[in-house]
């Protein structure tokens, strides 16, 4: 099942094929295990307001952070098989670090399409840090990846990098999107290992390496023991999309956008939330996790 690959291939400027649109607006498929990819989706809409967006939350398999690697590869390839044949996207954005750090080479080998991934923003975090102490806040799956370790080795730039795999944060972010209040003590406990204070130096930059976490960034700021730079990769992903597809034309008109759920729990409350992100239609296309 595993494909051997250069662990840093996803960081090179042009790992994907470009898209030949011949002047028509593109169809862009945005994919995550759940609602975190919406933090990327909102930036992509700003970059290409003319595109037809399809957002898929593979909520039947949420959270990806707890799946073993072979299972996750098989799952994402199976869901993508179905989505690509149903929606014929011009470009796919994997708005999930847990999937991107493992599955991108499999997807690129299988589908003749450009894929944009989301991987931990280790290089920007290290470049921005004055104290040279940086933390990467991710899922347990992402911090365990060879890919993530290779990013630290290549782009750590002499910084002390602390990898924090938070087991509960993505679930807490989903709960807030369903209208619940995340327990501040639980959130504080999840982010606490990011804050390292040693020998007169303190962490000053934290990369949000799970797309769910920007949904909670205001809570993180309120609970942080001291201020840090919280780095959200979404603007960089939107820039990468523009490199691949080109900028929007002058007469960019928003197109109807659809959200697809593979499970569909709490659909009623989620439809209103999706509308807030410009996804007017919400559909359940069941794909149980086996
Ligand atoms: N949003 C996903 C990410 O960026 C992960 C959430 C999950 O564990 O499913 O890593």
UniProtKB/TrEMBL annotation:
It catalyses: L-glutamate = D-glutamate. GO terms for molecular function: glutamate racemase activity. Keywords: Cell shape, Cell wall biogenesis/degradation, Isomerase, Peptidoglycan synthesis. Belongs to the aspartate/glutamate racemases family. Pathway: Cell wall biogenesis; peptidoglycan biosynthesis. The active site is at residues 96, 210. Its EC number is 5.1.1.3. Substrate binds at residues 32-33, 64-65, 97-98, 211-212. NCBIfam families: glut_race (TIGR00067). It comes from Phreatobacter cathodiphilus. This is Glutamate racemase. It is an enzyme of class 5 (isomerase). One of its GO terms (biological process) is peptidoglycan biosynthetic process. Provides the (R)-glutamate required for cell wall biosynthesis.
């Amino acid at each position: 099942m595993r494909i051997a690959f250069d662990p840093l291939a996803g960081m090179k400027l042009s790992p994907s094929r470009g898209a030949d649109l011949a002047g028509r607006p593109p169809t862009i498929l945005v994919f995550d295990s759940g609602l975190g990819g919406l933090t990327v989706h909102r930036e992509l809409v700003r970059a290409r307001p003319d595109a037809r967006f399809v957002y898929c939350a593979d909520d039947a398999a949420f959270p990806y952070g707890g799946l073993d690697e072979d299972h996750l590869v098989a799952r994402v390839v199976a869901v993508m098989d179905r989505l690509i044949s149903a929606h014929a996207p011009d470009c796919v954005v994997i708005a999930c670090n847990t999937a991107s750090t493992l599955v991108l080479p499999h997807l690129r080998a299988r589908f003749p399409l450009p894929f944009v991934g989301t991987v931990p923003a280790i290089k920007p975090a290290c470049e921005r840090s004055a104290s040279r102490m940086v933390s990467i806040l991710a899922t347990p799956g992402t911090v365990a990846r060879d890919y993530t370790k290779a990013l630290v080795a290549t782009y750590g730039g002499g910084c002390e990098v602390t990898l924090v795999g938070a087991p509960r944060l993505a679930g807490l972010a989903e709960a807030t999107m369903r209208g619940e209040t995340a327990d501040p003590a639980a959130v504080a406990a999840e982010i606490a290992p990011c804050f390292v204070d040693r020998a007169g130096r303190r962490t000053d930059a934290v990369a949000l390496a799970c797309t769910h976490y920007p949904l909670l960034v205001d809570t993180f700021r309120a609970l942080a023991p001291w201020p840090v730079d919280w780095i959200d990769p979404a603007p960089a992903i939107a820039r990468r999309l523009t490199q691949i597809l080109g900028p929007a034309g002058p007469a960019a008109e928003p197109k109807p956008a659809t959200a697809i759920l593979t499970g569909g729990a709490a659909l009623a409350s989620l439809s209103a939330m999706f509308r807030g992100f410009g996804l007017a239609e919400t559909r359940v296309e069941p794909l149980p996790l086996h």
